[in-house]
From TrEMBL:
GO terms for molecular function: ATP binding; ATP hydrolysis activity; identical protein binding; RNA binding; RNA helicase activity. Gene3D superfamilies: P-loop containing nucleotide triphosphate hydrolases. Signal peptide: none annotated. The Q motif is unique to and characteristic of the DEAD box family of RNA helicases and controls ATP binding and hydrolysis. Belongs to the DEAD box helicase family. Keywords: ATP-binding, Helicase, Hydrolase, Nucleotide-binding, Nucleus, Ribosome biogenesis, RNA-binding, rRNA processing. It comes from Xylona heveae (strain CBS 132557 / TC161). This is ATP-dependent RNA helicase. Residues 518-531, 688-699, 749-774 have a biased composition (Basic and acidic residues). RNA helicase. Residues 79-253 form the Helicase ATP-binding domain. It catalyses: ATP + H2O = ADP + phosphate + H(+). It holds the Pfam family DEAD.
């Protein structure tokens, strides 16, 4: 029995005391933070630096460690409103720091609500592209390094099952819309019922990329009581509609409406008028003149990106070349993005997949090789340079037919742009080199053809016909500039007489077809009169027997008579008689077979009556004997249907029960019944799916609550006796009240050897340790027991 405690007071654990003080200090800081946020007035407060914001200690330390000290205009206006719990609709120039404007409120909102890993998903951030989602996640990791929240990145391109395992444990998710909706529909463990914040970054791009229906479906899954923040560089009608549907009394934040330009003031913008067939030469000359720079080149399609990258890579301009487009795998896109971010001098050929939100450090030049579809796309493209008040330069290549319309659109958006000319002395032509490469490399020629077709198709599909005029483009010269021998055929382009041919009478069309057939026949006859080549003479030689057997099929009618005879023999061999019998032999054989069959029948055949069937079953083989052991297979001999289902009692039922034609017609037309049946089945499946998901979520929530309660009980500090209790009063406790837990094993350190493990105590030592001798008699009894 343990000795009595001095004074009757139970000693407190130092660890529990420290934990209790830490928790008490945290609650005090949290109450102060909550009070400071309530007293904050976003309109009157003068906030310039991060230190002026009422932030928690982990967020402030993360911002300081990431070297974020001064706030931008959008951050000064948006963060105080978001901290107050307001819905925000923000619009700012590209590169103005919108990412921090919503990441800081996300972290602070979860901190003030005491969010833990057991509370599930607290914030959801939607991004239009994978690259932008990765960038947002990296910034979140930097500024949230001192928080205990779990954050995840869901962007597709990876295994769905791996994401499912981690999804239920995440507090903050950065994702793309398509992948997010897929998890909401297919992952039962994914619970969004407790969501506190929804953020949509680059909302106009999300709408332009065709994600409108996806975003609407995601919002339907989310709870109505939440805070929503929507950010975009441009405000369109679709964005306004989305804000009206998903935001409640939003605060509109705009920092560039009063500005004289929609682009940064530190950005120098120029355009060059160059014909379509000289664009590639101009680009090559520009890259050769700026090999000590960091260049980003925008093209309209992924096929153009591949061709320009491959062709210029073979010419070796003296600067590292990279390419990025949406058809690449996710790992390749990540590698290219990180390589271009780290590079000091490099040239990246890309589509508009990198035109929104991405922050590439220290980009010197943005070259728009193809004209953008509108002024907003131009603004987003040039926004990859001159970020955070740095200097930057942008050049736009325009065909003479595109100059007037595009300049008018940029003037409407308050975009200052100047015209510059190319120095003809430094202009280099690479057309001959491209022709040689395409002649030697069929794959490069194929890429050039695809690039030509994709560019023409992109111009053909443009909506703004004031800028894009396909009929004014020199397509033949453009194909020659790509190194192609001629312009590839384009299916969606027809000749000038297409409409006249469509409206012409049938007789005229048939006459024109006959004339064309006669002309092609004449051309074939003229070709036959041409000089015969060595291949023609080779295939007409007589000694072709040494070749393969399929030679006869290759030469067709041009072969000699021997080959035709050989083909005829082969055809006869298909039904050729191998052996002929006399009538006597046939009769002998038939008699022998009949006798053998009778003997076998007498020997093995069994006649078994089956139920009420009219004919009995003759069993003359082992296969038929097995039928007797299977009730399901015997049912077809008893007049039952072949398609059956069995209930719990083992009774067989037909899958479909036929009804009378009159009864069927009374219910309505067949198509109406089919549609009604499909609707009912779809509704039934959806209800069952919702019920299954709800049941799974309830079970998971119960587990979380039990685990949370258990950990809270384990971490609870020792409480001092209350006023009603006397010091030193003994408290009786039964064994049932004490929950015994198995002692955890000592974790092995990474530098420990297996031989250093503590040996397991024997059973006899356990007994000795449990009953420690106190008197001399007990010690003698223990010693005698050990000796015996």
């Amino acid at each position: 029995m343990a000795p009595a405690l001095q004074g009757g007071v139970k000693p407190s654990n130092p660890k529990n005391q420290a934990r209790s003080l830490k928790r008490k200090r945290g609650e005090e800081d949290l109450s102060k933070l909550q009070k400071a946020v309530e007293e904050l007035d976003p309109k009157e407060a003068e906030i310039k630096d991060v230190a002026d914001l009422p932030l928690s200690t982990p967020t402030a330390d993360g911002l300081e460690a990431s070297h974020f000290k001064t706030l931008t205009d959008i951050q000064r206006k948006a963060i105080p409103l978001a901290l107050k719990g307001k819905d925000c609709l923000g619009a700012a120039k590209t590169g103005s720091g919108k990412t921090l404007a919503f990441l800081i409120p996300v972290l602070e909102n979860l901190v003030r609500k005491r969010w833990t890993e057991f509370d599930g998903l607290g914030a959801l951030i939607l991004s239009p592209t994978r690259e932008l989602a990765i960038q947002i996640f990296e910034v979140l990791r930097k500024i949230g390094r001192y928080h205990t929240f779990s954050a995840g990145l869901v962007i597709g391109g990876k295994s769905l099952n791996e994401e499912r395992e981690r999804l239920s444990r995440m507090n903050i998710l950065v994702c793309t819309p398509g992948r997010m909706l897929q998890h909401m529909d297919q992952t039962a463990a994914f619970d969004v019922d407790n969501l506190q914040m929804l953020v949509l970054d680059e909302a106009d791009r999300i709408m332009d990329m065709g994600f409108q229906s996806t975003v609407d479906a995601i919002i339907e899954h989310l709870p109505k009581e939440r805070q929503t923040m929507l950010f975009s560089a441009t405000q369109t009608k679709r964005v306004s509609d989305l804000a009206r549907l998903s935001l409640r009394e939003p605060e509109y934040i705009s920092v560039h409406e009063a500005a004289t330009s929609a682009t940064p003031s530190t950005l120098q913008q120029h355009y060059v008028v160059t014909p379509l067939h000289q664009k590639l030469d101009t680009l090559w000359s520009f890259i050769r003149a700026n090999v000590k720079s960091k260049i980003l080149v925008f093209l309209s399609s992924s096929k153009q990106v591949r061709f320009v990258y491959e062709s210029l890579r073979h010419l070796q301009p003296g600067i590292p070349l990279l390419h990025l487009h949406g058809r690449q795998k996710q790992t390749s896109r990540l590698d290219v993005t990180s390589s271009f971010s780290r590079a000091k001098h490099s040239c990246l050929f890309a589509t508009d997949v990198v035109a929104r939100g991405l922050d590439f450090p220290a980009v010197d030049w943005v070259i728009q090789f193809d004209c953008p579809e509108d002024a907003d796309t131009y603004i987003h493209r040039v926004g990859r340079t001159a970020r955070y008040e740095r200097d930057g330069r942008a050049v736009l290549f325009l065909d003479p037919s595109e100059e007037e319309g595009m300049l008018r659109r940029l003037e409407q958006k308050k975009v200052p742009i100047e015209k510059i000319n190319v120095r003809q002395k430094k202009q280099q032509s690479i057309q001959n080199q491209l022709q040689n490469m395409c002649f030697k490399d069929p794959e490069l020629k194929y890429l050039g053809q695809k690039a030509f077709v994709s560019y023409v198709k992109s111009v053909h599909l443009q909506k703004d016909k004031d800028i894009f005029h396909l009929d004014k483009l020199p397509l033949e010269e453009f194909s020659a500039s790509l190194g192609l021998p001629g312009a590839p055929r384009i299916k969606f382009l027809k000749g000038d007489n297409a409409k006249a041919l469509k409206n012409a009478p049938r007789q005229a069309v048939s006459d024109s077809e006959e004339d064309s057939e006669a002309e092609t026949k004449k051309n074939k006859e003229d070709k036959k009169k041409e000089v015969r080549t060595k291949y023609d003479r080779m295939f007409e030689r007589r000694n072709q027997d040494v070749l393969a057997d399929h030679y006869a099929k290759m030469i067709g009618e041009g072969g000699h008579e021997k080959d035709h005879e050989q083909d005829a023999d082969e055809d006869d061999d298909f039904l050729q008689v191998k052996r002929r019998f006399n009538h006597d032999e046939i009769s002998d054989l038939s008699d022998a077979e009949d006798n053998g069959a009778e003997q076998r029948a007498d020997k093995k055949a069994k006649v078994v009556p089956i139920g009420n069937a009219e004919e009995a079953l003759v069993i003359d083989s082992k296969r038929r004997e097995k039928l007797l052991k299977s009730k399901k297979k015997l049912l077809k001999y008893m007049g039952k249907g072949t398609k059956l289902v069995y209930d719990d009692n083992g009774e067989a039922h037909e899958i479909y029960e036929m009804e009378d034609e009159d009864q069927f017609r009374e219910k309505g037309p067949a198509e109406t019944q089919r549609v009604k049946f499909l609707d009912e089945e779809r509704k039934r499946v959806q209800e069952a799916d919702i019920a299954d998901k709800q049941l799974f979520k309830e079970k998971r929530r119960e587990k979380k609550e039990k685990r949370k309660a258990r950990e809270a009980a384990e971490s609870a500090p020792y409480e001092e006796p209350e006023e009603g209790e006397e010091e030193g009063e003994d408290v009786e406790m039964s064994d049932a009240d004490v929950e015994t837990e198995p002692s955890a094993k000592r974790p092995k350190k990474w530098f420990e050897d297996a031989s250093e493990d503590e040996s397991k105590p024997s059973k006899r030592r356990d007994v000795a340790a449990a009953h420690e001798p106190e008197t001399l008699e007990e010690l003698e009894a223990l010693a005698s027991g050990l000796l015996n």
